[in-house]
Amino acid sequence: MRILKYIFLLLLLALIGITVYVTTQKGSFAVSRSSIIKAQRSTVFDYINDYRNWETFGSWMTKDNTFTFEYAPKTIGAGGSFSWKNGSDFGSLRTYFVKENDSIAQKGHYNGTSSSLYWTFKDTIGGTKVTVHSKGEMDIFTKITTFFKGGMTSVLDDICEKSLRNLDKTLDYEMKTYTIKVNGISQRSSGYCLKQTVSCKIKSLSKNIKIMMPRMVHFFKKNKIAMAGKPFVLYERYDKANDFVTFSVNIPTVKQVFVMPGSDVESGEIMAFTCLKTTLIGDHSHTQEAWDKAKRYIADNGLKENVAGKYTEVYLKTIDDVKQPSKWITEIYIPVFPKAVVTTSPATPNLQTAVPITTPNTDSAKTP
Hints:
This protein is α+β, with helices and mostly antiparallel strands. It is built from 7 helices and 15 strands. A hairpin with a 4-residue loop joins strand 10 and strand 11 (244-253).
């Protein structure tokens, strides 16, 4: 019994000693990791700049399926944020500075530990050199828990290394795996929607759509409006010569809905039209190629575009449905004049899904 008592006292003293030692250590930490990602710099930057993609490469998020995520109306660029929970653990990140295709600065909190992340992107042989810097301050509890894992620096170093490795695998496979099919002549049905219309430079189109789409969804949720389908985009004007585009982000409604005067969201009506349907399965970066293939089909088969119609991109599956870009489904509808015989696709109650990313290649001032 006396021996057991001594052993217990020794263990207690050792525990007290370790606790005193750990708690008196510096609470600050700093880690830096770099890796070559086999993808274009703009592709890598855009992927990291949108928090909705982090579930696919954040090593601490992908190791189990017990995480739950909550995304703010804005997840891209300065002001974008998201948070996550895993049992009693809670974390959040917010972006406060972005330099296009160059750097991203973020601040995060995780169980009482505050930190900052700083990403840089540089062109290099074989792809893009991505460097992530992390530094911050730990609370006492985090000091103790990370001590038995080799310290906070070791833990973060491992997280950064695995996350960059996951990012490379994701972009290398997911961005390159896609198929494009021209389905033929179809008939789009009519309906009602709410929409927000914006004009901008063509180079800003993709960025504006990514920002506007979640805001429209948030508008519906906030005002408890029933959605008859997912968001879609209609191109009102596409003037390549003057670098100018006017487009509307829309969400179909079960019935006609009116909004108060002065709102930037307005009521709209979806007009039925005959069109050529083309389907892309894969990342949105291949949308341009899908438009080009559809245009060649029109030329090769003697069809004529109806420039008075609505050029539409419909996204049946997006990042909100499945995280892997290789499984996203995008439909492109180019209005055409019907021939003597028109094959009609199965009717749909309203335009279903849509989230455009790139623009078709044409010099027409009316079409995308």
